[in-house]
Amino acid sequence: MTVTFGFILLNTGTVPTVLVNAVVVVIAFYFGSGGPRSIHPPTPAGATPAVPAPKPPRLVKLLLFAGFLGLAGWFLRTNPSLGGLPLELVQVWEVLGGYVVGASLAWIVHRHAHEDPRNRRLATVFRDVSAAATLALTAYICFAYVGGLTSALAGRAEDILSLVVTYYFGSRVIAR
Fold first, then answer.
1. Is 134 helix (H, G, I), strand (E, B) or coil?
2. What is the rounded distance in angstroms from the CA atom of residue 5 to the CA atom of residue 61?
3. What is the maximal distance between C-alpha atoms in the chain?
4. Could you tell me the pTM of the whole model?
5. Which of 23, 99, 119, 122 falls between 20 and 30 A from 8, CA-CA?
6. Rounded CA gap, 139 and 161, in Å?
7. Within 13 Å of residue 169, how many CA atoms lie on the same side as its CB?
8. Spatial distance between the Cα atoms of 10 and 24, rounded to a whole number of angstroms
């Protein structure tokens, strides 16, 4: 599906909305499914242990990221401004960008959380403040839509909402 997206984008410059949506769902699955796994209590004797859902291979994430990076590079080669990127590719990069920023910040905060109780508290505060901020911004954007206040967001409400939501899920990938 992502190869079809790239092929159509390179040959026609526009991609059908249904394909853009499908590619965004693929990205959401592969980048979002690496989230935290619940810790199961010890299995009683004679019971079958619960098996956690498998995580997609990192290679798939790397290939998706590299493919979309290559597409962006192709378009930036001919027009070196961000305005030269097709809207469909920008939408995909908003989703990828949100995940990458959220996961990167969570990794930075959580990488030493297990070493010290203070680090664990810092990671918990980060997780809670991050969740509260993204929920508040999402609520504001939704209120702006309902109240017709989207001009307050300079016409970028969809882009901001996409980044905020994917940032939130990306920040949950590493959280414990």
1. helix
2. 16
3. 65
4. 0.70
5. 99
6. 10
7. 18
8. 18
